[in-house]
Specification:
By secondary structure, the protein is mainly alpha-helical. Helix content is about 55%, strand content about 5%. The protein contains 13 helices and five strands. A three-stranded parallel beta sheet has the order 1-2-3. Strands 4-5 form a two-stranded parallel sheet. It binds adenosine-5'-tetraphosphate.
């Protein structure tokens, strides 16, 4: 049977949050033994909002170490930095010509980030979904494991692929989003109607995978909840529902089990339990990341090898695309 292909990525736009972990990376680790997986560090996406160059470089390396610390195994997946594989930008350009401005303007993330970065509504921000389509389509991806916030982008990648195939003949495999049931969308601890984001201006809104135990406990103690004191997940009670979802994702239990465990207990006790559960999962990941960061040569070697493999796979698709659109390649 033909091997199914997985592609996913995270941006080195800050330290990853527990949202990125639960919605994305943790699931990648499970998938790497079943599929041919490509996992990128999306630095080209990251610069669609302003980044400090030295910080971007640091975050890129830290993210590579974090991927490995979370359990990604370079012998079972291709792990690389997006900007080291120029085919992403090359395919993006071609796909731009089968994408309409109107459909990009309607993208939720574009509208949201344009509001948050009103002084920097650049072309890259608007083109983000086309670059993401290129990321996915280059590897003839079948499944894209993402958090629920990214499904719109996977759908547009599919639309773009279909449009290209219809115009130029069958070229791209049509990708599908793969959404986890538990913890598909972790919300902000301060504004629980909003998703948790690593670039939130308020550091109390998110828990970073690199936060130490005291910080994790403090952030959960300060999490916004309501004045009701029942620990149940209900419509209209975004704060407590989010904390329960986080607890379930980190304690590996069902909502019913969690509600039963905390029946009759107070918010204070519950918040401490959530904080401790999360901190216990993060501690070994942090220790491993620190160990890996001390071995720069090893990390650089993994990334160089990953980029080489990715370039080879990507070039196969890109050559096909260039031929289909009529770019002259010589006799
Ligand atoms: N809150 C979340 N809950 C569940 N999954 C999430 N993801 C992000 N936030 C949550 C998933 O993490 C993967 C990597 O995301 P990304 O780094 O490419 O960018 P993003 O989705 O824009 O994440 P952030 O944290 O909100 O980054 P910034 O603040 O830089 O824009 C994706 O699979 C995403 O679904």
């Amino acid at each position: 049977m033909e091997e199914k292909i997985i592609y996913s990525a995270a941006q080195p736009s800050g330290n990853l949050t527990i949202g990125n972990y639960v919605g994305a990376i943790r699931n990648w680790v499970r998938l790497q033994s079943e599929y041919r997986c490509f996992f990128a560090i999306a630095d080209m996406h990251a610069i669609t909002v302003k980044q400090e160059p030295a910080e971007l470089r640091r975050h890129t390396l830290e993210l590579a170490a974090l991927y490995l610390a979370c359990g990604l195994d370079p012998s079972r997946c291709v792990l690389y930095v997006q900007s080291q594989v120029p085919q992403h930008a090359e395919l993006c350009w071609v796909l731009n010509t089968v994408t309409y401005v109107g459909e990009m303007e309607r993208m939720t993330q574009f509208k949201d980030k344009s509001r948050r970065h009103a002084d920097n509504i650049n072309m890259g921000l608007m083109d983000y979904p086309v670059l993401m389509a290129a990321d996915i389509l280059l590897y003839q991806t079948d499944y894209v494991p993402v958090g629920v916030d990214q499904t719109q982008h996977v759908e547009i990648a599919r639309d773009i692929a279909l449009r290209f195939n219809n115009r130029y003949s069958e070229t791209f495999r049509l990708p599908q989003a793969l959404i986890v049931k538990n913890g598909a969308k972790i919300m902000s601890l301060q504004e629980p109607e909003k998703k948790m984001s690593k670039s939130d201006e308020n550091p109390n809104a998110f828990v970073s995978l690199l936060d130490d135990r005291d910080t994790v406990l403090r952030k959960f103690r300060r999490a916004v909840t309501d004045s009701d004191n029942r620990i149940v997940s209900e419509e209209g009670r975004a704060g407590i529902s989010n904390l329960l979802a986080i607890y379930c994702a980190f304690a590996n239990c069902t909502l019913q089990e969690a509600e039963k465990t905390f029946e009759g207990r107070g918010y204070g006790e519950f918040k401490t339990a959530v904080g401790e559960t999360v901190a216990n999962v993060l501690a070994p990941v942090q220790a491993e990341q620190k160990r890996l960061l001390a071995d720069r040569k090893y990390l650089d070697g993994i990334l160089a090898e990953g980029a080489e493999t990715a370039r080879r796979a990507a070039q196969r698709t890109l050559s096909k695309v260039y031929r289909k659109v009529g770019f002259y390649r010589g006799e």
